[in-house]
Amino acid sequence: xxxxxxxxxxxxxxxxxxxxHEGGVYKSNTGNINFYSHTSVEDISADNHKVKxxxxxxxxxxxxxxxxxxxxxxxxxxxxxxxxNYMESTKYPKSTFNGTIDKIANINxxxxxxxxxxxxxxxxxxxxxxxxxxxxxxxxxxxxVNAKAVFNINPRDYNISIPKAVANKIAQELKIxxxxxxxxxx
Amino acid sequence: xKKILLLILSLGVAIGAYVAYSMYNKKHTNxxxxxxxxxxxxxDLFTAFENDETEAMTKFADxxxxxxxDIYTVDLSNEKEPQLVLAANGDNGYIRCGFKPEELEKIKxxxxxxxxxxxxxxxxxNAPEGLDLLADIDVVLSSCIIIE
Lengths: 186, 148
Prior knowledge:
The structure holds 2 protein chains of 2 kinds.
Chain A: H1 2-17, E1 25-38, E2 43-56, E3 61-67, E4 72-73, H2 76-86, E5 94-101, E6 113-125, E7 128-141, E8 144-153, E9 174-184
Antiparallel strand pairs in A: 1-2, 1-9, 2-3, 2-4, 3-5, 5-6, 6-7, 7-8, 8-9
Chain B: H1 2-24, E1 38-41, H2 42-51, H3 53-60, E2 64-75, E3 83-89, E4 93-99, H4 104-108, E5 115-126, E6 137-146
Parallel strand pairs in B: 1-2, 4-6
Antiparallel strand pairs in B: 2-3, 2-5, 3-4, 5-6
C-alpha cells in the first residue's frame, strides 16, 4: 500500500511539481524599444516602455505592436516634430512587427541560460511593410525570458521624409534596440 | 540713423535667438498643472476608442485626460515606467497608465481592486489588427499622476 502511495506521490510531483515552460505563449505589455540617431551635429534618442509583444515558444511566431505617440524624447520640440512632421502619428498611430524566431529549437525553455536565434519578419511603419532580420538574444530564467535585439532601418524606406533643412541632424540609418522581459502565460 | 537701424537689427536678432532657444528647450506638458480636456470613467474612455478610433484620437490624443476606475493590476515589471492597468471592458480591454519613476512610491501603496482617479496624456489605443497573439486592447496614458 505504501508503495502505491509513493508511486502516486512521485507521479503527481512529476506532473504538477516540476513545471516545464516548453511550449505556450510568452507575453509582455511593458517592453522597451529605443531608437537612436547619431550625427556629428546631434544625437537623438527616444524610448517607449509600453510595447505590447508576445511569442509562441512552439512555432516561434513573434509579434509586436507599439504606439508611435508613446515614444518619449528628451526635448519636447523633437517629440512634436517626430509625431507631426515625420511619423504623422495621428494618421498612423501604430507600428507593428509580425515575424518569427527562426531557430526556436535553439532555445531550451526548460533550462536557464542564454540562447541566440535569427529573428525575421515584416516591420510596418506608416502603412509601409518591409522585411527586416536580426539576431535575438534570449535569456531564459524560470518562467521568464529576456529578449534583446538591435537592427537598423532607413527612414526613407518607410516614407519618412526628412526636410533638407534638418537632414544633417538625422542619421541615414536609425538604430532600433529592443529589450523585453516576457512572462510565460499559463 | 545708422545707429538706430543697427540697434533695431541687433534687437531683432536677439529676440529671434531668444524665441529659437525657447522653442528648442520647450518643456514637456506638465500634467499636474494642466486642466484635463475631459473627465470620464475607464469604460467610457475605452468605449470612445472602441467605437471610433479616429474620432477619439482627434478628441483625446496628446491631451491630458482624467480617468477614474478600478485597478486591474499594478504592473511594476518595467522599472523605467511603473504602470497601473485599469479595468475597462472585461478580459479584453484596459486603460494602461504609465507613470514617471518618481511616482513609484505612490503606486506601491495601491493594489488591484482599489478605485483611483488619475490624469495623464492620452497616446491612443494599442489594438493590434491581424496579430493573433496580441488580442487584448489597451488605451494608453503616459506621464500620469494620481488625483485621489
